[in-house]
Write a structure and sequence with these properties.
The chain is mainly alpha-helical and 94 residues long. The protein has a single domain, classed as Orthogonal Bundle (Arc Repressor Mutant, subunit A), CATH 1.10.10. It has 4 helices and 3 strands. A hairpin with a 5-residue loop joins strand 2 (58-61) and strand 3 (67-70). Helix 1 (8-19) packs across helix 3. The longest helix is centred in the C-terminal third of the chain and has 15 residues, at 79-93. The two termini are 19 Å apart. The relative contact order is 0.22.
């Protein structure tokens, strides 16, 4: 499997998507991050989602509102396991 390195910011966005039981809009991701005292703008989250999509870390699905869900690449794995793999890849890349 090709190891992909992601930033801490990208990981925070992935956690919010992963924690949700449904697809989220960018605005909903921003609101969830603000609950954790992250003051990111809509454009910042959109940029992070673009980066994650380029790394095939999530997939966007067509919905009445643009929703996002974690890629099938990560399906069936616990968030802790995914975080460990990503952080290990990040450590190896640096």
């Amino acid at each position: 499997m090709n190891k992909k390195s992601i930033s801490e910011s990208e990981l925070k966005v992935m956690e919010k998507i992963w924690e949700s039981e449904r697809m989220l809009t960018i605005a909903e991701i921003v609101a969830a991050l603000r609950e954790d005292r992250e003051e990111w703008t809509y454009n910042t989250v959109a940029m992070l989602l673009t980066r994650l999509a380029e790394k095939n870390m999530y997939r966007q699905q067509k919905a009445p509102k643009a929703g996002f869900s974690i890629s099938r690449l990560l399906a069936g794995q616990s968030l802790t396991g995914v975080k460990q793999k990503i952080l290990s890849a990040n450590s190896a890349a640096h």
